[in-house]
Design a protein that fits this description.
Length: 282
């Protein structure tokens, strides 16, 4: 679920961007009383996502618009499937079309790509596929929702959600041990401490410092396996996360190496928009 105030704020900004000057074409060419209906059709196979966003765009433009969801979020839809239908004043439908499609094409594209990564994890493996903060400014709440609908897990939402000590933090603090020490002293007791490392040497430093989660940045699969072997008998055992240079083809081998989490920036920063068209009729 997307909290209604957050959803409305995004939809209203998007509509303001597209309708600040009104809809000159619709107002000039279409009578105010003309009614219409339209179907949002997936041109290729997708994981549907964005039903409430689609509905909200049309109803914010004109409350008389009625939207029907035919495929729930998170469900697979073959090419040619009608995902959603809308009925209402033709001017409102035409004025809403581009904004609605822009948002749901983005969300459905992310959900579809995420499902491919999730499905690539071998059966029996316990590895989680997560997103990152590499999201479109202003659309993070929609994109994170789309990752969940694709079967993925969300990483930290923002800088205040968790402590994540990255390479530049380590440099600024004067080393991993010092950075973890300062984080422990400053962070809430409910927050875990994650440390990014780029070598097996730094892995040992993070373990010695007591990191709760260790991010293995741009590690080879062989070094991921070595890190898993090093950590498996520790108590408490840190969670190991692989990130950087992650491709769909690497997911099976990384999961079989035993890593707990694979974070994939490509889920949001590189997912192509889904091919969804709005077929309009009077």
């Amino acid at each position: 679920m997307i909290a209604p105030p957050l959803l409305d704020a995004i939809v209203d900004r998007a509509l303001e961007e597209d309708l600040a000057g009104g809809d000159l074409s619709g107002e000039a060419c279409v009578d105010a009383e003309t009614q219409s209906h339209a179907a949002a059709v997936a041109r290729k196979a997708v994981i549907a996502c964005g039903a409430e966003v689609f509905r909200r765009v049309f109803t914010r433009v004109d409350p008389r618009c009625m939207v029907e969801t035919l495929v729930p979020d998170g469900k697979e839809a073959p090419a040619g499937t009608t995902l959603w239908r809308v009925r209402g004043p033709a001017r409102a439908v035409l004025a809403s079309e581009r904004t609605a499609l822009n948002l749901v094409q983005r969300m459905t594209g992310i959900a579809t790509v995420t499902r491919r990564y999730v499905d690539a994890v071998p059966k029996g493996a316990r590895t989680r596929i997560t997103d990152t903060r590499k999201t479109t400014p202003g659309l993070r709440v929609l994109e994170r929702y789309a990752v969940r609908m694709g079967g993925g897990i969300n990483h930290r939402n923002d800088l205040g959600s968790a402590v994540m000590i990255k390479d530049n933090h380590i440099i600024a603090a004067g080393g991993i041990s010092r950075a973890v020490e300062r984080a422990r002293a400053h962070a809430p007791h409910t927050s875990r401490i994650e440390v990014e490392v780029d070598s097996l040497v730094q892995l040992e430093e993070a373990i010695a410092a007591g990191a709760d989660i260790i991010l293995l940045d741009n590690f080879s699969t062989e070094d991921v396996a070595r890190a898993v072997a090093r950590a498996k008998d520790l108590s408490p055992r840190p969670i190991l996360e692989a990130s950087g240079g992650i491709t769909l083809e690497r997911i099976p081998e990384l999961a079989l190496a035993g890593v707990d989490v694979i974070s994939v920036g490509a889920l949001t920063h590189s997912a192509p928009a889904a091919d969804i068209g709005l077929d309009f009729q009077l």
